[in-house]
Specification:
Blueprint lengths: L1 H31 L3 E2 L3 H12 L1 E5 L6 E3 H9 L3 E2 L4 E2 H18 L4 E10 L9 E5 L5 E10 L4 E10 L2
Parallel strand pairs: 1-8
Antiparallel strand pairs: 2-3, 4-5, 6-7, 6-9, 8-9
Length: 164
């Protein structure tokens, strides 16, 4: 009679252990499947295309038209567009919003996006430029580019919210 009770206790403990292992596996899988994909090749390619797009701002002079990457650097250095009555920051802010809107309209799966421009490793300084459009629901993919100014590294990061 005593042996039967011991066998029932061992069986009960074995069931509890199996249930705990199953819960741990479920927890590990659910934690690992975070919705943010930190580096997406598609988003990296989109950011690369954005950075190489030529603008109408010329610095230092015509015919040296800046691309968006140059504009980010010129904005940080407080340069001006020599062919336009505008600073690089003002021109960047005016042209980047409509460009991103048109650029993202061609991507049917993108529901929202965010672009940040900031100095790397400078926690105290706020973003130099932040553009947010839409509410993020679904999968988040992101990419970033480093721009070297000689003095500091600048980061341009884009996050896209896409339909799953």
């Amino acid at each position: 009679m005593n042996k039967e009770a011991q066998q029932e206790m061992v069986g009960f403990i074995l069931i509890v252990v199996l249930v705990m292992i199953g819960l741990m596996v479920f927890l590990i899988i659910s934690v690992r499947n975070t919705p943010e994909d930190s580096e997406s090749l598609q988003v990296d390619n989109m950011l690369g295309a954005l950075m190489k797009h030529t603008t109408e701002c010329a610095s230092p002079a015509i015919p040296y038209y800046n691309n968006f990457e140059d504009l980010f650097k010129n904005c940080y250095e407080n340069d001006n567009c020599n062919n336009l009555p505008s600073s690089a920051c003002k021109y960047l802010n005016e042209t980047l919003n409509p460009f991103l809107k048109d650029f993202m309209a061609s991507e049917a799966s993108v529901t929202a996006y965010e672009l940040d421009f900031f100095v790397k490793d400078d926690e105290e300084q706020p973003s130099l430029l932040n553009i947010v459009k839409g509410n993020c629901t679904g999968k988040v993919s992101s990419a970033q580019r480093k721009i070297n100014t000689g003095q500091e590294d600048l980061i341009v990061r884009i996050k896209l919210c896409q339909i799953d």
